[in-house]
Structures are given as structure tokens and as C-alpha cells.
Specification:
Distance between the termini: 18 Å
CATH superfamily: Metal-dependent hydrolases
CATH architecture: Alpha-Beta Barrel
Helix content: 25-40%
Largest sheet: 5 strands, parallel
Mean pLDDT: 94
């Protein structure tokens, strides 16, 4: 795997290990490009205090530490510093204004919430599902995101035709915009509800550009010798060849 842009740090409160440990493990694994993209704070009126993201006060340290390591390891690996963002309509401008204070190189969209509810807890809420897809489409249409992380995160046990309809709308929109969608290796490795084969059949049919993301929460996640070949075979069976890099 040439590049991984989805790497967390301890600041999100559900990851472990130092930044240096992630970098060293990436080098050992032959990764040439490593991007850090921890969960951004939400310094705006819609501020999720859910314990899964850095605080506004931690943001300066996040960029300072990684900027120093980027210089230290410049001969060994290409490092980039970004953040994983919840796109909140009406609030996104405030967040980007906040981030402009820092050397932020890229954003990935990771939509965990819709209407303040975690998307894995709306298994049969049709209105929330439609709104979730609409927010993702609105977000990627801004042109601010390098890709859409775990687009199939939602747990959906409702009407199957609605799932097909809404995910077709999402994939068709992403393909039209040329925004890559992420095949999430954390979900694949841990047998979560995502990757969802229903979704990836649709993504293949709609010709979506696809990038694999490790979504690393411990340095060991960057050891890919077992999971990467299996993930590539999963995608190959669907007729998908993932991109190796994305443009920042």
C-alpha cells in the first residue's frame, strides 16, 4: 500500500500510541505516504462533546508535534497533516476558519452523525437516512474534501429499496464530482458492519473512484501484510481497482 491518509492519534480518546510509533510502523510496512487525520474539534455552536475528538485546545499541539516529525522524517517518508471532519450544514465555514490558523493540508469527511444522532443508531429511520446522504453530498460538493471516509458506516435494517436508492444517489454524486470514496480497512479487519457489500456493488456499478484507508487507531493497524491482499481481492471481485494516491 503506497499511501494511507487516515491515521488517528491519542487525542481522539479512542486511539493509542505515539505519533512517532505510527510513523515508524508505516516505514516498516513500506508505506511511502502517511497522512494523519485525527477527528477535528467542532469549535462552533453545534459542538459534539462525545469524547471521540480532540478539543480546540489540543489542536495547536497536534499540528506542532506532527510538523516537527514531518521535518525530522522527511528523508524516510512523506508525511502530511490533515483532519477528519464532520460536515455540519451551516457550521462548516466556522470550522474551516478555525483550521486556517494551522498548517492543515487536507480534510477527509467522516460523517458519524445526522441530526445529532450517531448513524449506527438509526437502523430504520428513513428521514434520517435520506438526510445523512444529503449532508454527505452537500459536503463533498464544497470541493474541500480529498475523499469521503467509510461512506457505508450506517447500519440499515429497513426497506432495502431505500438503501439501494439512497446509496445510488450518493455514489452517483461522488462519481460525478470525482470525489473518491474510502474502502475502510479498520471495518474490514474487525468484521464490522462496514464495508457493506450492498454498498460496494452499487459503487462498482456507478464507477466511483475508490481509495483504501487504514483508519489506524494503533500503530499495529499499519501492518498490512495480511489485510491488504484480502481487501484488494474483495474489491477485485466487484470489478474495482483502488487508487494508490489522492491529490491533496
Amino acid at each position: 500500500m503506497k499511501a494511507n491518509y487516515h491515521t488517528h492519534t491519542w487525542r481522539c480518546n479512542h486511539a493509542a500510541g505515539t505519533e512517532r510509533e505510527y510513523i515508524e510502523r508505516a516505514i516498516e510496512s513500506g508505506i511511502e505516504i502517511l497522512g494523519f487525520s485525527d477527528h477535528t474539534p467542532n469549535p462552533c455552536s453545534w459542538n459534539i462533546n462525545d469524547g471521540i475528538r480532540m478539543t480546540p485546545e489540543q489542536t495547536e499541539g497536534y499540528f506542532a508535534v506532527l510538523s516537527s516529525l514531518k521535518k525530522e522524517y522527511e528523508k524516510d517518508i512523506e508525511l502530511h497533516i490533515g483532519v477528519e471532519v464532520e460536515y455540519i450544514p451551516g457550521e462548516f465555514g466556522k470550522l474551516t476558519e478555525f483550521l486556517h490558523q494551522y498548517p492543515c493540508e487536507y480534510l477527509i469527511m467522516g460523517q458519524h452523525y445526522v441530526d445529532g444522532v450517531y448513524v449506527r443508531f438509526i437502523p430504520e429511520n428513513e428521514a434520517a437516512f435520506r438526510n445523512h446522504v444529503s449532508q454527505m453530498l452537500e459536503g463533498i460538493a464544497t470541493g474541500e474534501f480529498i475523499y469521503l471516509a467509510h461512506p457505508d458506516l450506517i447500519v440499515w435494517n429497513g426497506w432495502e429499496d431505500l438503501y439501494a436508492q439512497e446509496m445510488t444517489r450518493l455514489c452517483r454524486g461522488a462519481a460525478a464530482l470525482g470525489v473518491p470514496i474510502e474502502f475502510n480497512l479498520l471495518g474490514y479487519r474487525n468484521n464490522r458492519n462496514y464495508p457493506d457489500r450492498r454498498f460496494w456493488r452499487i459503487a462498482a456499478r456507478e464507477g466511483c473512484p475508490v481509495i483504501m484507508g487504514v483508519d489506524a487507531h494503533v500503530p499495529e493497524d499499519l501492518e498490512l501484510s495480511q489485510v491488504e491482499p484480502l481487501a484488494r481481492e474483495y474489491l477485485k471481485e466487484l470489478g474495482i481497482t483502488p487508487m494508490e494516491t489522492v491529490k491533496l
